[in-house]
Design a protein that fits this description.
With 364 residues, the protein is of the alpha+beta class. The protein has 3 domains: 163 residues, Alpha-Beta Complex (tt1808, chain A), CATH 3.90.1570; 54 residues, no CATH class; 110 residues, Replication modulator SeqA, C-terminal DNA-binding domain (Up-down Bundle), CATH 1.20.1380.10. Helices cover 47% and strands 17% of the residues. α1 crosses α4, α4 crosses α6 and α11 runs parallel beside α14.
């Protein structure tokens, strides 16, 4: 198998949520990729697991010469690598290891711990195996992590050259407008909710998330700002129960979806999402675990075993906008239709292909 083929295998596994633990990321992603990059993964004097640094351990030390680390690799569960760079830097600083890599299998961050600046400023490159194309992934992994490049010193030279390249700053400046436009188009749930909360702070009325969603689309140029939206009656500070009853009455039987040749009716987009996840969980008892292993929103989890994990720092939302889809699994529901469709699409990616082809669900 080539490195290109291995990356394709990993990408498919990530989409299906197959890597549900740190051990799975190590055994199913890191070690196979290292093998294809030429590392003798069964030689523990070269690829050393749980390398001891005083009383602590780094997940892997890639050594050249034998038993002398050239690269430290810290592995985390998919989606949980944030904040782990500090620990990795401490390991690398202590022994003067020139390069460090933090990965959750999907995202790979390459660092030069000895350079100046904050932790994130010493990151040479961040590779996302699902967002970057295969050619880019192959190029970067071979450039920074191939066995021959590390042994010859070329990997470190390349990393330092890339770090010092001022073109990076120019590229960032050029991409900023596109990033803002993409942020508006993708409508991360946090952005929609922040807008809704700010409107309520300023005028005392909390707008529906759909209205906020359409406003953001207009700002992104995907809809006309002057396009009339259906008139929405806002009630100042009305109870959540009354609001839910009003919305349920207005939208009852408006939505439907197909699952294995059967049509299901739903009262709302949220109801479509909830029913669909329940059906998928009934069909496959590993589905929710695999779905939870995928990367979700910027800060939030779409599903979680603990309700409060759905909305970190917002227990009020956890109480009001969550539902237990099956015993022991909670689903967040405070999303616009656009966000709900993203969640549905992600769920279909995780579902087994033979089942995925028998599902039709679109709430837009």
């Amino acid at each position: 198998m080539t490195i290109r083929t291995q990356i394709k295998v990993v990408r498919e596994g990530l989409r299906q949520g197959s890597y549900i633990s740190e051990a799975a990321v190590s055994q199913g992603i890191l070690l196979p990729i290292l093998h294809e990059l030429g590392w003798p993964i069964f030689n523990t004097s070269v690829v050393t697991p749980e390398f001891t640094v005083e009383a602590r351990r780094v997940d892997y030390a890639l050594c050249h010469p034998a038993n002398r680390p050239s690269v430290f690799v810290e592995v985390k569960k998919v989606g949980l690598s944030d904040g782990a760079d500090k620990q990795l830097f401490e390991y690398a600083f202590h022994l003067g290891v020139p390069m460090a890599i933090l990965t959750d299998g999907e995202e790979w961050s390459f660092y030069l711990p000895g350079e100046q600046g904050r932790y994130d400023e010493r990151r040479v490159y961040k590779l996302n195996l699902l967002e970057r194309d295969v050619d880019e992934a192959v190029s970067r992994l071979e450039r920074y992590l191939s066995y021959t490049a590390v042994c010859s010193g070329d990997a470190l030279k390349s990393a330092r050259s890339d770090y010092q390249n001022v073109a990076r700053d120019r590229e960032i400046k050029a991409v900023l407008p596109k990033a803002w436009s993409t942020l508006l188009e993708e409508q991360d749930s946090l952005l929609v909710e922040l807008l809704s909360d700010k409107v309520e702070d300023l005028c005392g009325y909390k707008p529906d998330l759909e209205l906020c969603s359409r406003f953001l689309l207009a700002m992104a140029g995907k809809a006309s700002p002057t396009t009339k939206v259906p008139e929405i009656t806002n009630y100042p500070r009305e109870s959540n129960r009354k609001a839910k009853e009003r919305k349920a009455t207005a939208t009852r039987n408006k939505y439907s979806f197909k699952f294995k040749q059967k049509t299901y009716s739903a009262s709302s987009a949220r109801d479509v999402m909830t029913q669909l996840l329940q059906l998928l969980a009934d069909e496959d008892d590993t589905f929710l675990e695999r779905f939870a292993s995928r990367k979700h929103g910027k800060k939030r989890r779409y599903i979680a075993r603990v309700r409060e994990d759905l909305y970190p720092g917002r227990p009020d939302l956890a109480d009001e906008h969550s539902v237990e889809v099956v015993p022991g699994w909670w689903l967040g529901t405070n999303y616009s239709r656009s966000n709900i469709q993203q969640i549905i699409d992600l769920a279909l990616e995780v579902a087994h292909p033979n089942l995925r082809s028998k599902i039709e669900a679109n709430v837009l």
